[in-house]
Design a protein that fits this description.
This protein is an alpha/beta fold and about 525 residues long. It folds into three domains: about 5-45 and about 65-80 and about 230-315 and about 460-520, FAD/NAD(P)-binding domain (3-Layer(bba) Sandwich); about 105-220, no CATH class; about 315-455. The chain is built from 15 helices and 18 strands. The protein starts with a strand and ends with a helix. About 55% of the residues are buried.
């Protein structure tokens, strides 16, 4: 009989969440991580000298109450920072910026005075329209077995509700956006912002069929609403809190321990073999890796059917972005038509710099051809505005994601394309903050290739399977009647490859631990 109840492969946030839940219930657990730090794509470490940098997630949306109760982040040393301005969205020149405030009265005044009643009403109607489709996605519901799109369509309570689901499952983001923001001039900012929300975690343009699903998924709210927060010390502080929780309860988190293979005997996972040849045995094995990494790299085709492996290989994994980190010698300022925003320092915290939807679609089409886009949409952040501990005194750090990087270009061209896109990202930031480039004292540029090598994500895809309708909901499961089980007895998936998918919700790990305790550990 194995001495360990569970081995978890990968100390990303979901793997740690699963281990923390198991350890809290008295089960023995070992977490194995190939890197020298925890958190994976929700980790924080020094990349630029003297800084704590996030490579991956950077802001936290409200978590399900069950998750916060079970994981007790604050009880394990995590601190949260409220954001007066959660995000600013900067459109093309000539349009007005859109800010999201924590204070609801301030938000209402901004909508009315700066964007007018029709835009505010359009946003309210869009959120109201999206509520039912978002609810049935169960993005923030713990322990819910996902349903297929056909099941959800059949269960729609009215023809109107079915029509809503048909649009979200099959339509484009612009099919949805144009219902509520039809005027390209009057509603320019909202059209750009919502288009950007639809393309960040998928490989589509805003006019591409299927992109409406990603828009609604991104906009889905849990019962706590939609207020974003920062974590003091970076998002990796959450994973570090979970590591402390696991070890306090007798579990182990072993760093620099790369798993070579999952040991399968008589159709059951019974442990793992490490790269150094050591074997560890356990009653169950949980993989926080995506499906191709788990089944084709660690399990092996001899233990799985050809049909199953074909389905795994068919999952689309892409990382069509470049990620930039900056160390700055001071806080950059808005210039030109945007200079009035400097009166509120929190308006420089972060958000998006986005072109019009037509330009985003053109950029997607260009990306598909293996070329750099002319109009790079950007997500940016300067987190030291609210958390100075992330950089040396007097310094700031910034990060940016530039989207529609030609990730299918030949390997021999990607390095050059990555560097060229980095310059385009900086140029675009400078069109809003003219002194940004001159403030850079150090920088690092990553593409999906780096995420593949650093974190083991297939094609560097941080979503563990893009947010396409046919890759979500029940399609996230691999065994009927289970959200986490696999065709190999005793082997479970606990990461974002499971329902409800990507995002820092901790629900895949939390849900997996509870399923394992129900079915395997008693």
């Amino acid at each position: 009989m194995p001495e360990t109840d569970a081995i978890v492969i990968g100390a990303g946030h979901n793997g740690l969440a699963a281990a923390a839940v198991l350890a809290k219930q008295g089960h023995s657990v070992i977490v194995l991580e190939k890197n020298g730090y925890v958190g994976g794509m929700t980790g924080t470490r020094e990349i630029l000298k003297g800084c704590r940098n996030e490579v991956g997630a950077s802001c936290l949306f409200p978590l399900a109450q069950e998750v916060t109760d079970a994981l007790d982040f604050e009880g394990n040393g995590a601190e949260f920072i409220d954001l007066p301005v959660m995000a600013i969205n900067l459109p093309n020149s000539g349009a007005k910026p859109l800010l999201f405030y924590t204070n609801p009265l301030r938000q209402l005044v901004h909508f009315l005075l700066d964007h007018g009643p029709s835009a505010m009403l359009g946003f309210i109607k869009l959120m109201r329209f999206s509520k039912y489709p978002a609810d049935v996605m169960d993005r923030f519901t713990a322990g819910r077995l996902p349903k297929t799109m056909d099941e959800l369509l059949a269960e729609a309570p009215t023809p109107a509700a079915r029509e809503q689901l048909e649009l979200v499952f099959k339509g484009s983001a612009m099919d949805l956006i144009e219902r509520f923001f039809p005027d390209p001039v009057k509603h320019q900012t909202f059209r750009a912002l919502l288009s950007f929300a639809a393309i960040q975690s998928t490989y589509k343009g805003p006019y591409s069929p299927g992109s409406a699903f990603c828009l609604v998924y991104t906009m889905a709210l849990n019962g706590s609403g939609g207020l974003m927060r920062r974590v003091k010390g970076g998002m990796g502080s959450l994973s570090e809190a979970l590591e402390r929780s696991i070890t306090k309860k007798g579990g182990e988190v072993r760093l620099k321990q790369q798993v070579k293979r999952i040991i399968v005997e008589n159709g059951r996972a019974v442990g793992v073999e490490l790269r150094n040849g050591e074997e560890l045995r356990a009653k169950v094995v949980l993989s926080n890796l995506d499906k191709p990494a788990t089944f084709t790299r660690l399990v092996g085709k001899e233990h799985l059917s050809a049909e199953f492996l074909d389905n795994v290989r068919a999952i689309e994994h892409k990382g069509a972005w470049a990620h930039l980190l900056f160390k700055l010698d001071g806080l950059p300022k808005y210039g030109g038509e945007w200079a009035f925003l400097n009166k509120d320092v929190f308006a420089r915290f972060g958000g998006a710099m986005v072109p019009d939807p037509e330009q985003m679609q053109e950029s997607y089409d260009t990306c598909q051809r293996g070329e750099l886009p002319s109009h790079v949409p950007i997500a940016f952040q300067i987190p030291t505005i609210v958390d100075p501990s992330l950089a040396p005194e007097g310094m700031h750090i910034a990060s940016a994601y530039g989207f529609f990087f030609p990730c299918d270009a030949p390997d021999s061209e990607r390095g050059k394309l990555r560097d060229e896109m980095a310059e385009q990202v900086i140029d675009r930031i400078c069109s809003y903050m003219p002194d940004f480039r001159e403030r850079i004292v150090e920088r690092a540029v990553f593409s999906s290739d780096h995420f593949a090598s650093m974190h083991g994500a297939t094609n560097g895809d941080f979503t563990h399977g893009l947010i396409h309708p046919d890759q979500m909901l029940a399609a996230r499961s691999v065994v009927e009647g289970s959200a986490h089980a696999t065709p190999i007895d005793g082997l479970y998936l606990c990461g974002a490859a499971c329902h409800p998918g990507p995002g820092v919700t901790f629900l895949p790990g939390y849900g997996c631990a509870n399923e394992v305790m129900r079915t395997e550990l008693g």
